[in-house]
Structure to design on (696 residues):
């Protein structure tokens, strides 16, 4: 059965939307200041902590939160589980927005933004030893791929609309996109496998500045499985929230079905993460019970507890139970990334970092913008599956 | 539908592609200095802390003072304004000066990090930053184990600032060439020749000769011969003073990029793994969509 998606409809400029736009507006004003006065004016970044909230959250965590599309695509296409297809479109939208947020985050963070256009074009100067180059190019390309994968949602809507440029464009583009889609879907699974793992390897270049509990050559694997877990967690939360707010079928049984896949990736994470530390003889750091050891143990717990929760087949169809487990997975994955890119990055005693207020407000504004865009798109374009309440009654 | 067994295998297979050969990442040879390598030798026992080199570096590299209104150069650390600094170490055994600037690593982490090659090992193995491709991502700062590259935080048009051994600066004749017979500004002005510029191999021999001639005067080790893969700036410390006291970290002989870049090269060797994975994913997608289309077709038919 092919699940039909329909726009939610309704007024756009609700009080929630106004609030989100105000937050985004504050960020825009602060961004003017950031580009006029330099990074030092709005951030607490320093030569000791050259990366902070923007990289740790917007880019490293934000793109992992955007792995819902990847994780669900793996199930539907690589593992041939068609029943999860109703989740694909909304997961793709959240992913496209998550990656766009990450890309905007990078453009705000880099100091010499005026040369970024050279990055994808000047291939003869690419440094093929740079792990970050692979991450950057992959993320750029993947953000593009995500929007094309999502484009049928826009094209369908435009095709129904009044005769206009958009309608003609939709008519011309749809067959081409349809033909290219299998190749794009495969690319949409390849690229995150590449850059989410490299995102882990990338921070190993901090070398001795990275705390031993996070320095491991297993880091590409750990970042990869944890982003897949986060992808499922985010998809469950996003599906539950959007379908509750907009009164669509809740698909709880479909969501609960994701549990098996989640248990696999979460346990893989815990076993490799812990086993690797034991193998490397780093138990003394694990059991030191200082700040770093507590962060490490918390990270293990936030992966282990939801895995154990989701193994309970009777309880996991309970919405609250499933939501809590998903929330834990998302926090666990976020903590792992915050640790590797911030808490466990130790440039020396004389440096310290906590984000400045404008720095935090810019991130808040970006997230607000992302949520606002999500709402506008699901109200105007066919993203959510199931019949709207009015049609169901009729 | 239970995917845990077969699914686990497939997840493991995908993961294995990403984690290929995680254990022994020896895909990368250890770099050696170029044949015509030059470098600096700093002898802490000779330095009197006059900071003439700090002022000369500032002039030669057109770097402004830390603060606008100040009577004298009161810089205390390497920053976006200061590419060379003299620091004082005071300990139980007395005191010692130390000069800090770029170490011009044999295997520089900054150059490994840099996406577009703005940081590069150039003529004579000198590591320089060129502005025309740098996007200011600051990955070089994350990577450098000596915390050398500095960013101009207070500028909307920031640069990365670090010692370039006065390459492109001292001569003013041929870009990229040190003028014959003219040393980097710091070495040129040092009244005690505490820091000297020259051929890397000759500097190594000179350092060893000083240790041999006055063993009681020196810490018996030359810093930089193989620390972190070797540095083209070498250090001698007074007897009783550890290099770590002077801010020169004891991290062993493996360079910072060796493991992560070796691992990356191993995973992406010949780009075989991504191409193979793409082929597999495309095949699986094709199969899954054909099946979905068949099911949809049946439904229409019934």
């Amino acid at each position: 059965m092919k699940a039909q998606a329909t726009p939610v409809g309704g007024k756009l400029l609700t009080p929630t939307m106004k609030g989100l736009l105000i937050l985004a507006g504050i960020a825009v004003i602060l961004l003017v200041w950031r580009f006029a006065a330099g990074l030092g004016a709005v951030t607490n970044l320093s030569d000791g902590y050259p990366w902070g909230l923007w990289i740790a959250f917007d880019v490293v965590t934000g793109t992992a939160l955007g792995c819902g599309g990847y994780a669900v695509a793996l199930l539907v296409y690589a593992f041939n589980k068609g029943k999860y297809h109703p989740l694909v479109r909304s997961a793709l939208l959240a992913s496209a927005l998550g990656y766009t947020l990450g890309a905007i985050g990078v453009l705000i963070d880099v100091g010499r933004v005026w040369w970024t256009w050279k990055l994808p074009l000047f291939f003869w100067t690419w440094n093929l030893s740079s792990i970050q180059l692979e991450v950057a190019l992959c993320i750029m390309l993947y953000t593009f791929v995500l929007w094309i994968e999502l484009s049928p949602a826009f094209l369908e809507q435009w095709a129904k609309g009044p005769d206009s440029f958009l309608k003609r464009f939709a008519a011309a583009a749809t067959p081409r996109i349809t033909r290219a889609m299998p190749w794009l879907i495969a690319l949409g699974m390849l690229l995150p496998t590449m850059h989410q793992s490299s995102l882990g390897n990338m921070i190993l270049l901090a070398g001795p500045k990275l705390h031993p509990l996070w320095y491991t050559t297993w880091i590409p694997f750990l970042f990869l499985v944890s982003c897949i877990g986060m992808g499922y967690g985010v998809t469950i939360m996003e599906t539950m929230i959007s379908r509750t707010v907009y009164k669509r079928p809740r698909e709880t049984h479909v969501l609960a079905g994701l549990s098996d896949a989640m248990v696999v990736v979460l346990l893989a994470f815990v076993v490799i993460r812990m086993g690797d530390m034991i193998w490397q003889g780093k138990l003394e750091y694990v059991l030191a019970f200082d700040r770093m050891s507590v962060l490490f143990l918390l990270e293990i717990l936030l992966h282990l507890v939801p895995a154990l929760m989701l193994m309970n087949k009777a309880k996991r169809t309970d919405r609250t139970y499933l939501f809590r487990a998903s929330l834990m997975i998302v926090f666990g994955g976020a903590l792992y990334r915050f640790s590797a890119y911030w808490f466990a990055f130790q440039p020396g005693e004389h440096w310290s970092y906590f984000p400045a207020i404008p720095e935090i407000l810019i991130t808040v504004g970006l997230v607000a913008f992302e949520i606002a865009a999500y709402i506008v798109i699901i109200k105007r374009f066919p993203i959510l599956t199931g019949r709207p309440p009015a049609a169901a009654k009729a | 539908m239970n995917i845990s067994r077969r699914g686990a295998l497939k997840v493991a297979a995908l993961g294995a592609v990403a984690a290929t050969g995680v254990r022994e990442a020896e895909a990368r040879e250890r770099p050696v200095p170029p044949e015509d390598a030059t470098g600096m030798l700093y002898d802490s026992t000779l330095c009197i802390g006059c900071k003439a080199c700090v002022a000369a570096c500032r002039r030669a590299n057109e770097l402004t003072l830390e603060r606008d209104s100040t009577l004298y150069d009161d810089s205390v650390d390497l920053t976006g304004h200061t590419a060379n600094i003299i620091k004082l170490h005071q300990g139980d055994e007395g005191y010692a000066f130390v000069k800090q600037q770029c170490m011009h690593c044999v295997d520089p982490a900054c150059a490994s990090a840099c996406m577009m090659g703005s940081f590069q090992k150039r003529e004579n193995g000198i590591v320089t930053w060129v502005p025309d491709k740098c996007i200011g991502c600051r990955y070089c700062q994350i990577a450098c184990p000596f915390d050398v590259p500095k960013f101009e935080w207070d500028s909307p048009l920031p640069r990365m600032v670090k010692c370039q051994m006065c390459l492109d600066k001292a001569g003013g004749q041929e870009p990229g060439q040190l003028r014959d017979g003219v040393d980097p500004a710091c070495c040129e002005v040092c009244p005690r020749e505490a820091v000297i510029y020259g051929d890397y191999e000759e500097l190594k021999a000179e350092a060893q000769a000083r240790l041999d001639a006055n063993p009681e005067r020196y810490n018996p080790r030359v810093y930089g011969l193989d620390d972190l893969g070797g540095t083209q700036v070498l250090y001698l410390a007074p007897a009783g003073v550890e290099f770590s006291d002077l801010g020169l970290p004891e991290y062993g002989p493996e360079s910072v990029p060796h493991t992560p870049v070796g691992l990356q090269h191993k995973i992406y060797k010949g780009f075989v793994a991504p191409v193979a994975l793409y082929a597999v994913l495309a095949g699986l997608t094709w199969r899954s969509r054909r099946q979905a289309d068949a099911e949809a077709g049946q439904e229409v038919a019934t």
